[in-house]
Specification:
Distance between the termini: 7 Å
Number of helices: 8
Oligomer: single chain
Radius of gyration: 18 Å
Number of domains: 2
Number of strands: 6
Mean pLDDT: 85
Shape: globular
Length: 216
């Protein structure tokens, strides 16, 4: 199944009111992720006649199709990165399966500490049948959380932890379009944004590593 066909099938149940064709929404979302701005899509190139705000809502709603199969996982890399919301620092946390390259979880928060780290680790464990080896950097918030939950972990600056760094690189390429500054006061908006990016990245990972066979 082609990635656009997959997106089309999934979004058919997402939008109650379809003033615009579903294929138009699917192409618009993909082009926005590819790098076009809201203005490019709705005003400059007329990819869609919908307003910028409508396109923004389509994009954020798309995050609802994000799903990860619960399974045995050997090792998972965790990391966080800074993104600004109205000029204030916020954090996007991400977990990536080091073997498959699949993004397992995304979380956004205003703070970066041991309590938030523990909450995120528990989200990650919900996608695993086992307690995988956790790969992290030396951020002090990880050690306490991982030991508290009873997980084995390794410190790595490079190596397999690069899988999560690559995802953040992809995310930052996109946020540079608006100077790495999300126009919202809610971390949920930032989280939805990152989840939508992760959804597309996961689909592309399947195409590259599993013979291009997407789930029906």
């Amino acid at each position: 199944m082609h990635v656009l066909d997959y997106i089309f099938n999934r979004i058919s149940s997402l939008y109650k009111f379809n003033n615009y064709p579903l294929y138009e929404k699917a192409y618009t979302i993909m082009l926005y992720i590819a790098g076009l701005s809201l203005r490019d899509l709705s005003e400059r190139y007329y990819i869609t006649m919908a307003s910028r705000e409508s396109v923004r809502r389509w994009f954020h709603r798309f995050s609802r199709i994000f799903s990860v199969e619960k399974m045995f996982r050997r090792a998972v890399a965790l990391d966080e990165t800074v993104v600004k919301i109205h000029g204030f620092r916020a954090y996007v946390w991400s977990a990536v399966d080091v073997d498959s390259g699949e993004v397992l979880a995304i979380y956004a928060s205003w703070s970066r500490n041991m309590i938030v780290a523990m909450k995120f680790v528990r989200i990650v464990l919900d996608r695993c049948y086992n307690k995988p080896l956790i790969i992290v950097d030396r951020g002090p918030w990880y050690r306490w959380a991982l030991e508290r939950i009873g997980l084995k972990y390794q410190y790595q600056r490079f190596g397999v932890r690069n899988v999560v760094e690559r995802f953040f690189g992809y995310l930052k390429q996109r946020t540079k379009r608006f100077y790495n500054n999300i126009n919202s006061w809610k971390t949920k908006s930032l989280e939805d944004y990152a989840i939508t990016i992760a959804t597309i990245r996961n689909l592309l990972t399947i195409i590259k590593t599993q013979g291009g066979v997407l789930p029906g």
